[in-house]
From TrEMBL:
Chief location bin: endoplasmic reticulum
Pfam families hit by this protein: ERO1
Complexes and interactors: Predominantly monomer. May function both as a monomer and a homodimer. Interacts with PDILT. Interacts with ERP44; the interaction results in retention of ERO1A in the endoplasmic reticulum.
Listed name of the protein: ERO1-like protein alpha
Localization: Endoplasmic reticulum membrane; Golgi apparatus lumen
Recorded coiled-coil stretches: none
Topology within the bilayer: Peripheral membrane protein
Biological source species: Rangifer tarandus platyrhynchus
Position of the signal peptide: 1-23
Key words of the record: Disulfide bond, Electron transport, Endoplasmic reticulum, FAD, Flavoprotein, Glycoprotein, Membrane, Oxidoreductase, Redox-active center, Signal, Transport
Family (UniProt): Belongs to the EROs family.
Cofactor dependency: FAD
Length: 464
């Protein structure tokens, strides 16, 4: 127990979760330092200093990941963008053209992806069913009455859904459509101001375990409340604080994308997207944001490491011989699986100091309650995405929350913990194609953010 916590705390310090020092630093001088002061250097006793992460991501992971995400399997994402917002009615749809999402024609999407047995060939499907059958029967004591056996099987099913951190999008709905992610890139849409704030506020205010009386500073330039908020945050247990950091990291990551693909020029002849340094500074400069910006960037690295850890943990699932990235194109599918495994092995080789077993450890009953809370709060966030008025932002918001939800499902799935890696991959652990596509695309987005931070760092250094 002590060692475990030691590990976790070392890790959290490394990614700044427990770091003190709000406002203690010398005022950094240059524009670059003002944004990056919290994300540089060797971080205490953890080997994962930011420079190592940057190098690992930018040169080893990012290029291969991009290639993988361009493949048919990963570019087509099925999503229902017409689900009503469960929390309020007055959604003002963003009318801007840049907010629109162009769904695929049905003949664009490979049949292998559309068909129900997308994941496996028929042969493999049968094999899996047999294995699952055997595993279930093995797990069920045959001396039990038939009724009890049935109940146990029901439990297995329930277990599976209780692993899910996201509300499953109803992709069977006639409203669900395939979207080509490459043709609908995440970038600046002009969706901002009160409507966008409202979404993020609901996420922070109602879903971060936060009491009503403590407000997260909405306007980064307004002073006064900040200290109450952060001292509240520091008083939380590790898990709840981690939850906040994940959301903040996601928020930061999305803002990095929007600053990196800002609509710089908009004439009827040409649209040009590119880096907008001013926009980046407004969100991340330590002075302009009263210290919050650099912490947001630190949270982005936290999110990165969490998803990285989930990926390294789920490797055995993808290593199963019968697992395919099935689109129907045999050679291409095999090649993609090789690339996928190459990426996963690269990830696994990255030295990580994160022991997610320490999460939700301690008193079993309390831990379960906390885990359940965590899950419910996260599900809520995935539902709030249906309230985003800009469809493009809704698409990428859903995809990234589903991806993070999948990462959490992997990290906290008891099945995975119990069965891997000693006893080999468990056939009880499943990821759907939706989950796989969102997991890798979401990680691709954070990986892109880390890469973009390097670009912004260089741009900021060149202006000062
Ligand atoms: C960059 O973003 C700022 C807002 O942060 C905006 O005022 C400015 O016009 C943008 N620059 C360009 C070239 O679009
Ligand atoms: C979910 O969100 C709604 C709307 O913001 C809120 O009323 C509800 O309390 C939230 N539930 C949880 C578990 O966070």
């Amino acid at each position: 127990m002590g060692r475990r916590w030691g590990f976790l705390i070392g890790f959290l310090i490394a990614v700044g979760l427990l770091g003190s020092g709000h406002g203690e630093q010398q005022p950094p001088e240059t524009a670059a330092q003002r944004c990056f002061c919290q994300v540089s250097g060797y971080l205490d006793d953890c080997t994962c200093d930011v420079e190592t992460i940057d190098k690992f991501n930018n040169y080893r992971l990012f290029p291969r990941l991009q290639k993988l995400l361009e493949s048919d399997y990963f570019r087509y994402y099925k999503v229902n963008l017409k689900r009503p917002c469960p929390f309020w009615n007055d959604i003002s749809q963003c009318g801007r053209r840049d907010c629109a999402v162009k769904p695929c024609h049905s003949d664009e999407v490979p049949d292998g992806i559309k068909s129900a047995s997308y994941k496996y060939s028929e042969e493999a499907n049968n094999l899996i069913e047999e294995c699952e059958q055997a595993e279930r029967l093995g797990a069920v004591d045959e001396s039990l009455s038939e009724e009890t056996q049935k109940a146990v099987l029901q439990w297995t099913k329930h277990d599976d859904s209780s692993d899910n951190f996201c509300e499953a999008d109803d992709i069977q709905s006639p409203d669900a459509e395939y979207v080509d992610l490459l043709l609908n890139p995440e970038r600046y849409t002009g969706y901002k101001g009160p409507d966008a704030w409202k979404i993020w506020n609901v996420i922070y205010e109602e879903n971060c375990f936060k009491p009503q009386t403590i407000k997260r500073p909405l306007n980064p330039l307004a002073s006064g409340q900040e200290n109450t908020f952060y001292s509240w945050l520091e008083g939380l247990c590790v898990e709840k604080r981690a939850f906040y950091r994940l959301i903040s990291g996601l928020h930061a990551s999305i803002n990095v994308h929007l600053s990196a693909r800002y609509l710089l020029q908009d004439t009827w002849l040409e649209k040009k997207w590119g880096h907008n340094i001013t926009e980046f500074q407004q969100r991340f400069d330590g002075i302009l944001t009263e210290g919050e910006g650099p912490r947001r960037l630190k949270n982005l690295y936290f999110l990165y490491l969490i998803e990285l850890r989930a990926l390294s943990k789920v490797v055995p699932f993808f290593e199963r011989p019968d697992f395919q990235l099935f689109t129907g194109n045999k050679d291409q599918d095999a090649e993609n699986k090789m690339l996928l495994l190459e990426i996963l092995h690269e990830i696994k080789s990255f030295p990580l100091h994160f022991d997610e077993n320490s999460f939700f450890a301690g008193n079993k009953k309390e831990a379960n309650k906390l885990k359940e809370d965590f899950r419910l709060h996260f599900r809520n966030i995935s539902r709030i995405m249906d309230c985003v008025g800009c469809l493009k932002c809704r698409l990428w918001g859903k995809l990234q929350t589903q991806g993070l939800g999948t990462a959490l499902k992997i990290l906290f799935s008891e099945k995975l913990i119990a069965n891997m890696p000693e006893s080999g991959p468990s056939y009880e652990f499943h990821l759907t194609r939706q989950e796989i596509v969102s997991l890798f695309n979401a990680f691709g987005r954070i990986s892109t953010s880390v890469k973009e931070l390097e670009n912004f760092r260089n741009l900021l250094q060149s202006i000062h």
